[in-house]
Structure formats: structure tokens, C-alpha cells
Amino acid sequence: MADSKPAAENGTSAPNPEAKPAAKPLPKPNPMWKYMGFGENFRPRVPSRNWCIFLAITGSFTAAVVYDKRETRRVQRKWCRLVEHVGKEPLDPMIMPRKLSVFLKGPPSDGLRAAQNHFKEYVKPVLVASGLDWEFVQGRKEGDIRAELAEKIRKSRMAPEERGEDVVGGIRQNSGITEYQGVQGDIVIGRHTWKEYVRGLHEGWLGPLTEPPKPVVETPQNESTPPIEAPT
Description:
CATH class of the largest domain: Alpha Beta
Largest sheet: 3 strands, parallel
Number of domains: 2
Structural class: mainly alpha
Strand content: 5-15%
Family: Belongs to the TIM54 family.
Mean pLDDT: 82
Region (Disordered): 1-27, 208-232
Protein name: Mitochondrial import inner membrane translocase subunit TIM54
Helix content: 40-55%
GO biological process, one term: protein transport
Membrane topology: Single-pass membrane protein
Radius of gyration: 41 Å
């Protein structure tokens, strides 16, 4: 009798397995997603590894393009503000306006279109803001820039009566219109264009007044072959 009670107490004091806590209920989704058309059960989550790589690459490329365009417009506005006072200067109707010469030549591995696009994107907005006139000297093959610049310099070195017949120049002279007396200005776009520009300056100012003769390329003559005799 005395021993049964402690035994009963020992039996009731045995450890019970720990009860699992109740699962935490999920919060209700934001009704904003429902109104935006994503559904009632839409829950935003972190994208997967591949999506993170894709978004990082495309985001970096897009940011670089946007930054380049923004900086290009900022630099263009800066230079346009610096030259816009030139377009506001009054012009004398009896004096020809200032005209710039723009020298363009395509890179060796590309055509002339690349140089033209470069001029339209970076140079033309500044010239338009300045109100200046310009003329193109385009080289479509090797040596065109050098030859045209040298010929232009040789004509400027000649006396007016030695330059030949110039109908437009004669009309301007009879009307009393004079040329612009200041510095006209040259714009050279491209490294290879600059090389030909320097060679043209050297040939035009330090060379003779007459154009040097072009080298004659000797073509090999086709030797006449004797007729083949028919077998008898």
C-alpha cells in the first residue's frame, strides 16, 4: 500500500514529448496586387539566380547607354552656349559671311558614312548654334583630301588674273562684295584625315604653283601569240 502511491506518482511524472508550435498564419496579401491585375494570391519574392544575372547585365547596359546620351547632350549644350553669341552678331550685306571647311574621310576599315554620322551627332549641333556656314571636303579614297586642299591653297597663292574664269567671283567683284577678312577655320574629323590635311598644307604652301604631274603607271603590253597550226 505504501509503495503503490510513489509508483503511481512516478508514472504520472514521466516526460511528455514536446508539442510542436502552431504554424504562423501567412499575412494577407496586399490588395494593391489584385487591383493591378496580378491576382489575389500574388506575393513578390526575390528572383532566381539566373534572373538576377540577366537583370544585372541588362540594367548595367541600359544605364551605360542612358549615361552616355545624357552626357552627350550636356556637353553639346555647353558648347552651344559658348558659340551662340557668334550667331547674334550683325552681318554686313556687302561682306561674305564666315565659312568653315569641314574635312571628312572614313576610317580605313569603314566607309564615309561613319565620319558623316560622327559629324551629325557631335559637330553639327554646335555649328547650327553658332550660325556659321560650312562646306564639306570629303575624301572617298586615299589622297582626295590632300589633293583638294593643296589645289585650294595653290589657287589662293595665284594672282586673280591667273586663277582662270570664275563667274561667281566676277559677279561678286562687280557688285562690290568682298570676302571675309578674318580667319575662316578648318574642322578636321579623324586621325587619317588629319594626316592627309597636314600633307596637303605642306604640298600647297611649300610646293610649286602648278600641280605636279601625276605618275604614269605603265601597263604591260600583251604579247601577240603565234597562231596554232592545225595538224595535217
